[in-house]
Amino acid sequence: MEIKATKNGDALEVALSGRLDTNTSPDLEGYLRENLEGIASLAIDLADTQYVSSAGLRVFLFAHKELETYWVDRKVGSGLTLRHPNEYIADVLDATGFTEILTVEQ
User: Fold this and answer.
1) CB 46 within 8 A of CB 85
2) I want to staple 71 with a disulfide (CB 3.0 to 4.6 A). Which of 56, 64, 77, 99 is the partner?
3) Measuring CA to CA, which residue among 75, 79, 67 is closest to residue 33?
4) Hey, how many other C-beta atoms are within 10 angstroms of the C-beta on 55?
5) pLDDT tens digits, residue range 7-28?
């Protein structure tokens, strides 16, 4: 998996390519742990991501909770947005209820 990121003020956009699974999710979680401080909104672009496992979903939940803490403390932020999931990933997000708690943009 490859992680490419762009920061603009308190907004961070992360583009992933490859597979987000048990082997690669620690890389994304580590990156986010190091870079979420001061971030009010995070967009993760999944256009080039072929697969997301439950370990990857856990990282999305971690990021959502970290951002939620930021909003409560400062009353700002637009949260976590998952962008451009393929059909398989969109189905996984829907089946697991993630579409109910996160913003998912096609």
Assistant:
1) yes
2) 77
3) 67
4) 16
5) 999 899 999 999 999 999 999 9
Q: Which residues contact 85 (CB under 8 A, 6 or more apart)?
A: 46, 49, 52, 93, 104, 106
What confidence tens digit (pLDDT) does each residue in 46-60 have?
A: 999 999 999 999 999
Beta strands in 9-52 (DSSP E): 11-20, 41-52
- DSSP reduced 3-state for 103: strand
Task: Tell how far CA 25 is from the center of its chain.
Answer: 11
Instruction: Please classify residue 93 by burial: count the beta carbons closer than 10 Å to its beta carbon, then call 0-12 exposed, 13-18 middle and 19+ buried.
Output: buried
| H or E element at residue 32 | helix 25-35
